[in-house]
C-alpha cells in the first residue's frame, strides 16, 4: 500500500468516506453504470412532474417543445461531458474545496451558504411534489399554482415525514444516494412511459399529427405565467441544470468517475428525464385541462393547479402515487447530499452526516411552502444565473491559466482568505446582466451564458494584473 493510499484511508475513516478535502483515491472510483443510474434517477424525477405541465402553462407550441428540448438537452450533455467531467477527473475535488483554493476561505463561505440554501429550496420543491402523491389517500386539498403558504395540518405532517426519510437516506453518503437512485429509477421511468401512453389514449391520439396537435401552434400563457418561445425552451432546458454543469457543482459527483467519458452518462438523465418525462408529464396535464375542474378555473380567469400526485394517479392509479413519491426522493436525495457538502465546507468540524441532516431540515421547511414548486421555471432560472458564473472561474482558470500567465489555486498559494479578482468578476457580471434582465424584461436564462462568459474573462483579466507571481 502506498503512502497516498494509507493517508486516504485515514481521511476516509475521519470523513465517513466522502473525501471532502482530499482527492478521491483510485480505489474508490466508480464506473459509468453508477452515473447512468444516478442521473436517470435524478432527472427522471420529481421536477419532471412539475416542469412538463409548467411548459403547458407557458403556452408552448409543439415545435418549440419537441425540437427545442431536443437541442437544449444536447447542449446540457456537452457541457457536462467537456467541462464538468473533464475538470473533475483531473482534480478529483469537490466544488467547494476547489473554489476555496481559488477564492479563499471567506469568499467561498458566502458562496457555499448561498449554494447550500438554494439546493435546499430545490430539494424542498421535490418534497412538495412527493407530498401531492402521499396526500391522495388522505383526501388532502392540493396546493394551487399561486399558493405560497401551507394549506392545512395534513400537508404539514406529510411534508415533515417525507423530509425526514429523504434526509436520513442522503445522510448515509454518496454510495447510499447512488444505490437508492439505481433501485428507484427503473420504477419511475416505467411509470413515466406508462403514464404517457395512458394520457395519449385519454386524449384520443391515434397518429403523430394528433400528438403534434396537442400543443399545435401554442397559445397565450396562463395568468401569471411567462410566454415561452422556441428559444425560451432551448436556453431554459440547457441551463435548467446550469449550476451543476457550467456552474461546476457536479465536480462533487464526477470526482468519483474513472474517466471523463462518464460525463456522457448525463444523457440518460436528459433524454429519459428532461425529454421523455417532461413530455409525458405535459400530456398528463393536457388530460387534466379537459376536466370540468380545470375548465372551471380557466372560465374564472385563473390557472388550474399543477399537482403531480393526482395527475399520475388519474392515469395509472397506485403506480402513479408510488412513482411521484419515489420521483421526489430521487431528486431530493442527491440535492440534499450536495447541500450537505456545501454546509460541511462552512462547518468542517461537523460530520457529513450531521450537516446533511441540517440541509434536509432546511429543505423540509422549504417544502412546506408550495411556491418553490409552483414557480419552478423561474426559480431554476434564477438559481442557475446566481451560481453558474462561479463555475466560470474554475473553467477559465483550468483551460487558460497557462496562456494568460496566471497561477492556479492562487488563494491557496498566496494564503488569501478573500480573492478580490473572483469577487469583482462575479459581482460585475451578475450586476450588469441582472440589471439588463430587470430593466429590459429579458428572461433570466437568456443572460446566464453572457454573465458566465464575462465572469470568466474578467477573472482572468483581474488575476493577470493582481497576482504576485513571486510567491
UniProtKB/TrEMBL annotation:
Superkingdom classification of source: Bacteria
Keyword terms: Membrane, Transmembrane, Transmembrane helix
Cellular component per GO, a single term: plasma membrane
Record field: transmembrane: 65-89, 110-133, 153-171, 183-208, 228-247, 268-288, 311-332, 353-373, 379-400, 421-437, 443-462
Annotated GO MF terms: cytosine transmembrane transporter activity
InterPro entries named among the record's database cross-references: CodB
Protein name as it appears in the record: Purine-cytosine permease
Source organism phylogeny: Bacteria, Pseudomonadati, Bacteroidota, Flavobacteriia, Flavobacteriales
Amino acid at each position: 500500500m502506498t503512502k497516498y493510499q494509507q493517508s486516504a484511508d485515514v481521511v476516509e475513516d475521519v470523513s465517513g468516506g466522502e473525501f471532502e478535502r482530499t482527492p478521491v483515491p483510485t480505489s474508490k472510483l466508480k464506473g459509468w453504470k453508477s452515473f447512468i443510474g444516478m442521473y436517470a434517477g435524478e432527472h427522471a424525477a420529481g421536477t419532471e412532474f412539475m416542469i412538463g405541465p409548467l411548459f403547458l402553462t407557458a403556452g408552448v407550441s409543439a415545435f418549440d417543445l419537441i425540437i427545442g428540448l431536443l437541442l437544449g438537452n444536447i447542449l446540457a450533455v456537452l457541457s457536462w461531458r467537456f467541462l464538468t467531467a473533464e475538470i473533475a477527473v483531473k482534480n478529483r475535488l469537490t466544488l467547494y474545496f476547489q473554489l476555496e483554493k481559488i477564492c479563499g476561505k471567506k469568499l467561498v463561505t458566502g458562496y457555499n451558504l448561498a449554494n447550500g440554501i438554494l439546493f435546499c429550496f430545490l430539494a424542498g420543491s421535490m418534497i412538495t411534489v412527493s407530498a401531492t402523491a402521499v396526500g391522495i389517500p388522505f383526501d388532502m386539498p392540493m396546493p394551487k399554482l399561486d399558493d405560497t403558504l401551507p394549506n392545512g395540518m395534513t400537508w404539514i405532517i406529510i411534508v415533515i415525514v417525507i423530509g425526514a426519510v429523504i434526509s436520513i437516506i442522503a445522510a448515509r453518503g454518496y454510495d447510499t444516494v447512488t444505490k437508492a437512485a439505481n433501485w428507484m429509477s427503473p420504477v419511475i421511468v416505467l411509470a413515466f412511459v406508462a403514464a404517457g401512453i395512458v394520457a395519449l389514449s385519454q386524449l384520443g391520439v391515434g397518429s403523430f399529427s394528433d400528438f403534434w396537435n396537442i400543443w399545435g401552434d401554442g397559445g397565450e400563457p396562463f395568468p401569471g405565467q411567462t410566454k415561452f418561445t422556441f428559444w425560451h425552451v432551448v436556453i431554459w432546458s440547457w441551463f435548467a441544470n446550469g449550476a451543476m454543469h457550467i456552474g461546476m457543482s457536479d465536480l462533487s459527483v464526477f470526482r468519483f468517475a474513472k474517466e471523463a467519458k462518464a460525463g456522457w452518462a448525463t444523457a440518460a438523465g436528459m433524454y429519459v428525464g428532461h425529454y421523455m418525462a417532461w413530455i409525458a408529464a405535459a400530456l398528463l396535464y393536457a388530460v387534466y385541462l379537459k376536466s370540468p375542474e380545470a375548465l372551471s378555473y380557466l372560465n374564472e380567469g385563473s390557472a388550474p393547479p399543477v399537482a403531480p400526485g393526482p395527475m399520475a394517479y388519474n392515469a395509472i392509479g397506485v403506480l402513479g402515487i408510488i412513482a411521484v413519491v419515489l420521483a421526489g426522493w430521487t431528486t431530493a436525495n442527491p440535492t440534499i447530499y450536495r447541500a450537505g457538502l456545501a454546509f460541511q465546507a462552512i462547518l468542517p468540524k461537523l460530520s457529513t452526516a450531521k450537516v446533511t441532516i441540517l440541509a434536509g431540515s432546511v429543505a423540509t421547511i422549504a417544502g412546506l411552502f408550495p411556491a418553490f414548486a409552483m414557480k419552478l421555471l423561474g426559480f431554476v432560472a434564477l438559481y442557475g444565473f446566481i451560481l453558474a458564473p462561479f463555475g466560470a472561474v474554475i473553467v477559465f482558470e483550468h483551460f487558460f491559466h497557462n496562456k494568460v500567465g496566471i497561477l492556479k489555486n492562487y488563494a491557496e498559494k498566496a494564503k488569501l482568505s478573500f480573492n478580490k479578482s473572483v469577487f469583482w468578476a462575479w459581482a460585475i457580471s451578475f450586476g450588469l446582466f441582472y440589471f439588463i434582465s430587470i430593466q429590459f424584461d429579458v428572461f433570466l436564462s437568456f443572460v446566464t451564458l453572457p454573465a458566465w462568459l464575462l465572469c470568466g474573462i474578467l477573472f482572468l483579466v483581474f488575476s493577470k494584473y493582481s497576482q504576485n507571481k513571486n510567491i
